[in-house]
Specification:
Number of domains: 2
Shape: globular
Organism: Pseudoxanthomonas putridarboris
Protein name: tRNA (cytidine/uridine-2'-O-)-methyltransferase TrmJ
Structural class: alpha/beta
Main location: cytoplasm
Number of helices: 11
Oligomer: single chain
CATH architecture of the largest domain: 3-Layer(aba) Sandwich
Distance between the termini: 54 Å
Largest sheet: 7 strands, parallel
Catalytic activity: cytidine(32) in tRNA + S-adenosyl-L-methionine = 2'-O-methylcytidine(32) in tRNA + S-adenosyl-L-homocysteine + H(+); uridine(32) in tRNA + S-adenosyl-L-methionine = 2'-O-methyluridine(32) in tRNA + S-adenosyl-L-homocysteine + H(+)
CATH superfamily of the largest domain: SPOUT methyltransferase, trefoil knot domain
CATH class of the largest domain: Alpha Beta
Strand order of the largest sheet: 3-2-1-6-4-7-5
Helix content: 40-55%
Keywords: Cytoplasm, Methyltransferase, S-adenosyl-L-methionine, Transferase, tRNA processing
Number of strands: 7
Bound molecules: S-adenosyl-L-homocysteine
Radius of gyration: 20 Å
Length: 258
């Protein structure tokens, strides 16, 4: 029987995007294994598989060998309910920002409720692109020296993995939750939230909400608002039902068949 720690840890993946140095991949695998986290995902690594990665993984080569390799971040998080982007610089994008402790608590809470969770780390030279950060529900910043805030990639993975471990340890001994909750009450999946955002964008166009202004800024703020709300599947369906009616009324107002 897996423990609550193990059940939740199995739903948390650490995603490294575009890693340049294979040594960092190995060191990250080691960081995960020391903290009891089983899942590493590599998105478009520059130099992998590589001897250096396995050397730096030390005893964690099993975890490294099991790492999934995918071409894009979108594919790596498609089935996730909660995606956190780790950024070396503070407040680069309009995302809710957490310190590692808070981020780990929210991540473990989502995983314990049955959600799939991803913590996403960027490239050594350039971090995560703005498009990649747009796929994240919130950001995490380790409050390092503001004049020198960029940790080595594997060191950042270690800090976050440690915080995840503390939050996971708190589950052991606590009453088990979540596994038998009704699917409607499960956190909405990434794909369903993206479907909702696409329909929201179409609806705002249909009701001429933007009136010639650039739609991007409003959409960014709306994404932030809805992502903060932690919507479940039922709530996403309710919101999409409202949008469908607004779209129908807009068609009628233009003299088109409803
Ligand atoms: N030069 C890059 C830094 C990349 S460091 C930049 O300025 O964005 C590689 C990765 O390690 C980052 O993308 C981030 O995921 C993680 N990282 C490094 N320092 C961090 C910090 N202080 N807080 C959170 N994540 C950090």
């Amino acid at each position: 029987m897996p423990t609550p720690f193990q059940r939740a840890a199995a739903r948390i993946r650490i995603v490294l995007v575009g890693t340049q140095h294979p040594g960092n991949i190995g060191a990250a695998a080691r960081a995960l294994k020391t903290m009891g986290l089983p899942r590493l995902v590599l998105v478009d690594p520059e130099d992998y598989p590589a001897e250096e990665a396995f050397r730096r993984a030390a005893g964690a080569d099993d975890l490294l060998a099991g790492a999934q390799v995918l071409p894009t971040l979108a594919e790596a998080v498609a089935d996730c309910h909660f995606v956190l982007g780790c950024t070396a610089r503070s407040r680069r994008v309009a995302l809710e920002e957490h310190v590692p402790r808070q981020a780990a608590e929210r991540a473990v809470e989502a995983a314990a409720r049955g959600g799939e969770v991803a913590l996403v780390f960027g490239r050594e030279r350039t971090g995560l692109s703005n498009e990649e950060l747009q796929l994240c529900h919130a950001s995490v910043h380790i409050p390092a020296n503001p004049e020198y805030s960029s940790l080595n990639l594997a060191a950042a993975v270690q800090v976050l993995s440690y915080e995840l471990r503390l939050a996971l340890l708190a589950l052991d001994g606590a009453p088990a939750t979540g596994d038998d909750r009704h699917p409607d009450e499960a956190p909405a999946s990434h794909a369903h939230l993206e479907g909702f955002f696409a329909q929201l964008g179409d609806t705002l166009d249909a009701i001429d909400f933007h009136k010639g202004r650039m739609p991007d800024s409003a959409m960014r703020k709306l994404r932030r608002l809805y992502l903060r709300a932690n919507l479940n599947e039922q709530e996403v369906r309710l919101l999409r039902g409202i949008l469908a009616d607004a779209q129908r009324m807009a068609r009628l107002a233009r003299g088109l068949p409803g």
